[in-house]
Amino acid sequence: MTDLSTSYMGLDLTHPVVASASPLTGSLDTLAELEAAGAAAVVLPSLFEEQVEHSEMVLDGTLVLGHEFGEATDGYFPALDDYNTGAEEYIDLLVAAKRELTIPVIASLNGTSPGGWSHYATALQDEGADAIELNVYHVAADVDLTGAEVEDRYLRLVESVREAVQIPLAVKVGPFFSSPGNMARRLEAAGADALVLFNRFYQPDIDLDRLTVTPDLVLSTPAELRLVLRWLAILEAHLAIDLAATTGIHDSAGAAKALLCGADVVMMTSALLLYGPAHIGTVVDGLRGWLTERGYASVDQARGSVSHRTVVDPSAFERANYMHALVNYGS
């Protein structure tokens, strides 16, 4: 039987299937369900930069208002010891998760500017997070902002967090760089211990009745895994850091494909929201069965066996695959 044990950023895992950030990892009860279902590790939902800033602005405005109106009673001011600044509730969840779970707990930060993120990263480290996943979600809507400036913003953010903490740091990014491979190398040089491929930019929709922009959360599909597989296969041969596959991992077949292309772990969100935490066991069992049937002794033996590292001329392979797909479509 195949040995599924693996390592991610130095964390020893019983297998490569990780529950990524989602509403399921946002409460202690569902975190316990995920562990019981067999998750090798969990990533908490992100602590958002905007969430923290908004809470701090509200607190600041309350204090200023109380100062300006001298007739305010002593009871007007909030009880600061109990006041949730946006980060305290998150830290409470982290502390509780570390107390109750035996699997690694990865905290997540979602921001776009260096700012105070080193402070929050340090706090999460101090409260016991096994690692931090920095989810960089930046839509470059400013047409005067160059590609180089966008990339520098990413790198400064990673560097600031890396300088602040000693625990492992993963960076979750999207695929929308002119040269994703070069950017991956620069993120590695900036201090990332792993890259998570890829975050999803949720696209707004238009309500034609109200003529308003509306958020529309659409879960991933297995078809979205193909872009992830392409870049896993390319980057595996060129980076020394770990790679995590996310977006489109719905079953054991998707997990196996990601590992063969070079992923160290596979992360699941949409499938767990669709089928529940118990789906983890189904994926793990299916993955073990597939690898065992094909004679793989371990995950390490299978990892990267169909990546670009095994191809003499990767660029020629990519071009041939592109031409073959177009020419043979519908035949």
Give a written overview of the molecule.
With 331 residues, the protein is an alpha/beta fold. The protein has a single domain, classed as TIM Barrel (Alpha-Beta Barrel), CATH 3.20.20.70. The protein is built from twelve helices and twelve strands. The strands form three sheets. Strands 3-12-11-8-7-6-5-4 form an eight-stranded parallel sheet. A two-stranded antiparallel ribbon has the order 1-2. It has a two-stranded antiparallel sheet with strand order 9-10. Helix 8 links the parallel strand 11 and strand 12. Helix 4 packs parallel to helix 5, helix 7 packs parallel to helix 8 and helix 8 crosses helix 10. It is globular and about 55 Å long. The chain starts with 5 loop residues before the first strand and ends with a helix.
Provide a brief overview of the structure.
The chain has one domain: Aldolase class I (TIM Barrel), CATH 3.20.20.
Which descriptors apply to this entry?
331 residues, 8-stranded parallel beta sheet, globular, two-stranded antiparallel sheet, TIM Barrel
Q: What value does the Rg take, in angstroms? A: 22 Å
Total of helices: 12
Number of domains: 1
The largest sheet, given as strand count, sense and whether it forms a barrel, is: 8 strands, parallel
Instruction: Round the mean pLDDT to the nearest integer and report it.
Output: 85
Number of strands: 12
Strand order of the largest sheet: 3-12-11-8-7-6-5-4
Termini separation comes to 40 Å
Shape: globular
Unreliable stretches: 54-85
CATH superfamily: Aldolase class I
Summarize the helix and strand pattern as letters: EEEHEHHEHEHEHEEEHEHEHHHH
Shape-level CATH architecture: Alpha-Beta Barrel
CATH topology-level fold name: TIM Barrel
Overall CATH class: Alpha Beta
Percent helix: 40-55%
